[in-house]
Amino acid sequence: MPELWRFEAIGTRWEIETAELLGASLRDEVGALIAGFDATWSRFRADSVVMRLAAAGGSAALPADAAAMLDLYRELDRATGGAVNPLVGESLARRGYDAGLSLADAGAVPAPGDWMSRLAWDGAELRLDGAATIDVGALGKGRLVDLVLALLAPRVDGTVVVDASGDLAVRGGPVRVGLEHPYDATRAIGVVEVTDAALCASATNRRAWGEGLHHVLDARTGVPVRRIAATWALAPRAMHADAAATALFFDGGPQLAAEWGVDWVRMTTDGRVEWSPGGRAELFV
Amino acid sequence: MIRTNAVPRPVRTAAALAGVAGMLALAGCATDATVAENTATPSGASTSSAPSAAATESPATGSAYTDGTYTAEGSYQTPESVEKVSVTLTLEGDVVTDVEVTGDPQARESQQYQSQFIGGIADEVVGKSIDDISVSRVAGSSLTSGGFNKAVEEIKSEAAA
User: Fold this and answer.
1) DSSP label at B141?
2) HSE (CB half, 13 Å, CA atoms) of A92?
3) How many CB pairs below 8 Å do chains A and B form together?
4) pLDDT tens sequence across A241-271
5) Does domain A3-20+160-283 have CATH number 3.20.20.70?
6) Contact B141 A221 (CB under 8 A)
7) pTM of the model
8) Which residues contact B79 (CB under 8 A, 6 or more apart)?
């Protein structure tokens, strides 16, 4: 039987599956990796790099993952016509998804549409012009899952699964994963086999706190999406799978997935299911 | 949500001078309910539209509005896109005699263009019980942490109080 290590971090539940029990020192390394990512990118702690920049902008030593993630945000922005934007933090906070989890809605505000001119990075620094809240939620958890798998893969034998609840990456496999029905968690709408790849899911049902209020906003308006209820994307890396799963809530998502060679499934709020050309998911339709 | 951002487009330009006068007169009453409802209702869009328009014919005596054909374009944002509508209406003696609302043809082209990247669509999915499909994992939205769940419980109990 595989060994399971469960813990809670960055506001969600994690499960790491390995053939052999992970030693204490390797667990500590994983913990430190996640803590470091959180200390840089968390919108929910005042001392993080992004929250120190949020009040008035400024500069910070370039965080290790900034360029990889923000470069991908440029592609997301282009593909979705600006619906996905890394400065969407204030828009989310205004709807109540703020550092104190007030869950009190103060209305829709668009994210700064000019983020590419206000947020700059080079080999040394990350610079933000003026007050704005960076939120890498469109792909950050996927990135972190990749980092954890990259840390473990060379150090342990056999199949490794890093499952951060909704975003998972597998070394080895195959691992059969059910696609949870967004309106009935006891059911699956299909099954995907994941081998040496990542599967990321996103849905509007759990991080929700009021009438039509959930965590997937259109950055152009600050309004939660209404047409798509859930998305799944299969890609070699979790960061790309996570990013594609986010893009699939918007027009342009399927095209971006095609450009990246990402396999996907999505479900609309009226119960229809769509999937990518040549999709490998087994769907119960 | 509607932002009218288009420049009025005169349908005919012969009566240019009268058109300017008519535009000024209409601008003062542009939010009049008759105009707003007639432009907005057929499209099903928000009624907060305040179309600006250019008159193209001479004012009719005793009328609040100058007879003529008016066109305004507005855009509104949905969670997934920014849609554009164009509204053309004809006024005769303060009565709207014709309304034409057209959507943004680019949006339809975009829809068709996007559809080539979709492999298939099923109208309904029943799903299967997770207990019956022998999977080792399930992928859906991220499970939330205790902190988030507690915050949701708090606002629920406040709402119920």
Assistant:
1) S
2) 26
3) 195
4) 999 999 999 999 999 999 999 999 999 999 9
5) no
6) no
7) 0.77
8) A217, A218, A221, A223, A224, A225, A226, A227
